[in-house]
Amino acid sequence: QVQLVESGGGLVQPGGSLRLSCVASGFSVSIADMGWYRQAPGAQREWVATFPRFGRNNYADSVRGRFTISIDNAKNTVYLQMNSLKPEDTAVYYCKRLDSPAWGQGTQVTVSS
Questions:
Q1: What Cα–Cα distance (Å) separates residue 19 from each residue in 46, 68, 76, 86?
Q2: Alpha-carbon torsion, ordered 7, 42, 82, 29, to 10 deg
Q3: Which long-range contacts (CB under 8 A, 24 or more apart) does 50-59 make?
């Protein structure tokens, strides 16, 4: 079955960078549409980025130009490179296979001075 394990979160100052990783098992990321989502305290979970099997990567307006989604097929891993982080990026970040209901445990990102 689909299993996803996110890591790489932490505390970072505004303007800093982090790279999140999501190791997938039970399927190959090379044949799936993959995405990253986030949920801030008291807010609904929101979409951040998509790495489609075909076509261009897509990003939410709030992160476009700062975040980059990528995939390493050999490691069956999805990444989210986050640059120029802002306090409003603080959230728990989740990766997801878009056609599956499964979620990982998420990884906490806190942007604060």
A1: 19, 9, 16, 15
A2: 50
A3: 50/98, 51/78
Q: How far is it, in rounded angstroms, from Cα 61 to Cα 76?
A: 27
Cα separation of the two ends of the chain: 40
The Cβ of residue 105 has, within 10 Å, a number of other Cβ atoms equal to: 10
46, 21, 51: which is closest to 34 by C-alpha? Answer: 51
Residue 72 to residue 80: CA distance in whole angstroms = 11
User: pLDDT digits over 48-94, tens only?
Assistant: 999 999 989 999 999 999 999 999 999 999 999 999 999 999 999 99
Check if the beta carbon of residue 70 is closer than 8 Å to that of residue 78: yes
Contact 47, 59 (CB under 8 A): no
> In the structure encoding, which two tokens stand for residue 100, read together?
């599956």
Contact between 49 and 57 (Cβ < 8 Å): yes
